[in-house]
Amino acid sequence: MAAAIKKLGRLPGISRPGIASFFPTLKQPVMLMDIGANVDCRAQHLYQFAVMASSCSRLLLNHDRPRIGLLSIGEESCKGNVLVKETHDLLKRSPLNFIGNVEGRDIYKGDVDVVVCDGFVGNTVLKVSEGLAEAAMHLLKREIMKTWRAKIGYLLIREAFAGFKKQVDYAEYGGAPLLGIDGTGIICHGASNAMAIGNAIEVAASMVRNQVNPAIIRALSTSVI
Asked: What is the pLDDT, as a whole number, of residue 146?
């Protein structure tokens, strides 16, 4: 992020760029922001994350009016730390489609299109999710190898397993858009293979084609702060 800011600069009105990531859900993919660029944030930063992710979600994921949730420890507006409570107030007064607080378990339900949090929390969610998906695949494989009946059953449903693996594979999403810079940037996984890099380039091209940055600038013009 530091290199991108130094080379390209920030969009007008953006205090801090952030990294947005696509997460699979029971419905459509959800965008989580920030996932690690800013570990210490103010309410102003989280509000801008919501603006940027909402614009990106609308244009890349075809959500007409993205539903925005604020990640907290409870759905009630009184729950959360000082940062969450201050951000809740800003989002509630904004023109964004803010539906309130959401808990960690709600991310994968697909009832919101954008989830906002600071980079410390977001990166933790990302790494736990990656670890859980990998552990689930290994645990299933281990159980399948225990009996011949399970092995036969796997042959009958291996297409379903392949579909599940594809949904949780980071390479399918390519990379995470770095939003808020005056240009286009994609943050890729350290273990990215050729397919992941190819998909990341496609995400970058889609951001340019759909004019994500101009949309963010227009959205910020109606900012409450």
From this structure: 84
Question: Which string of b and e fits 127-159 if b means at least 16 CB within 10 Å?
Answer: eebeeebeeeeeeeeeebeeeeeeeeebeeeee
In order of their start, the domains of the chain are 2-217 (3.40.718.10)
Give the C-alpha separation, 124 to 128, whole Å: 6
Beta-sheet strand order (sheet of 114-116): 98-102, 68-71, 114-116, 30-33, 18-23, 176-179, 186-187
Q: 58-67, 111-120, 161-170, 212-221: which range is least confident on average?
A: 161-170
Measured at the CA of 22, the angle between CA 133 and CA 34, to 5 degrees, comes to: 105
Distance CA 60, CA 212 (A): 8
Q: What is the DSSP string of 7-74?
A: HH-B-TT-SS-EEEEEE--SSS-EEEE-SSS-SS--HHHHHHHHHHHHHHHHHHS--SS--EEEE-SS
Strand residues in 72-129 grouped as ranges (E):
98-102, 114-116
User: Peptide bond before 113: cis, by omega within 30 degrees of 0?
Assistant: no
Q: What pTM, to 2 d.p., does this model score? A: 0.86
